[in-house]
Amino acid sequence: MKTADVKENYLGVRGWIRGGNYKLERYLYTSHRVTGLFLILFVIYHLIATTIFRIQGQSLWDSILLAQANAAYRVVEYLVVLAFTFHGLNGIRLILQELGIILGKPTRPIYPFTDALRKKRRLTYAILALVVIIAIIFLFDFVVGG
After folding, report:
1. Hey, what domains does the chain have and what are their CATH numbers?
2. CB 25 within 8 A of CB 124
3. pLDDT value at residue 26
4. pLDDT tens by residue, 81-139
5. Are 64 and 48 in contact (CB under 8 A)?
6. Model confidence over 1-44: pLDDT tens digits?
7. Would you tell me the crossing angle of helices 24-47 and 71-99 to the nearest 10 degrees?
8. Of 21, 51, 100, 130, which sits with the fewest C-beta atoms within 10 Å of its C-beta?
9. Contact by Cβ (8 Å): 63, 53
10. Beta carbons of 89 and 38 less than 8 angstroms apart
């Protein structure tokens, strides 16, 4: 094995965002990881805000709620909803793919291997369309309802 090949396979976190000839599934993989990290950070923040600050007393709790009433926090709330929606739907797609449900029956591998990819792509595009529709619905809710 060449040294360049070995180095190419050990990119670490840089490999998540590397450009080049990556397909859609690679970018969904990266987005799944990033949204997962974002959701973990938000859950930690939420637990701190609702337990420690609430225990500290009513005046601190009121000041935290007042700080969260600005437009920047509304944007963060919207991003949390988008991250949760994408992460959940993409997770369902990954589970179905892992179980082989969306791959269909196994066939003899004949180049260019398009049948299995085509079935996976339909579900991928359907989930991305669903994420976009939900994002638009929640954007309307956040802007108008806000």
Report:
1. 22-145 (1.20.1300.10)
2. yes
3. 80
4. 999 999 999 999 889 888 877 776 777 777 776 655 565 678 888 899 999 999 999 88
5. no
6. 555 555 555 666 666 666 555 678 888 888 999 999 999 999 99
7. 130
8. 21
9. no
10. no
> What is the per-residue DSSP string for 89-125?
HHHHHHHHHHHTTTT-S-----TT-HHHHHHHHHHHH
pLDDT at 70 over 70: yes
Tell me which residue has tokens 């591998």.
109
80: nearest Cα among 88, 69, 70, 91: 88
Q: What distance in Å separates the CA atoms of residue 44 and residue 46, rounded to the nearest whole number?
A: 5
CA 74 to CA 142: how far, in whole Å? 8
Place of tokens 């990033």: 34
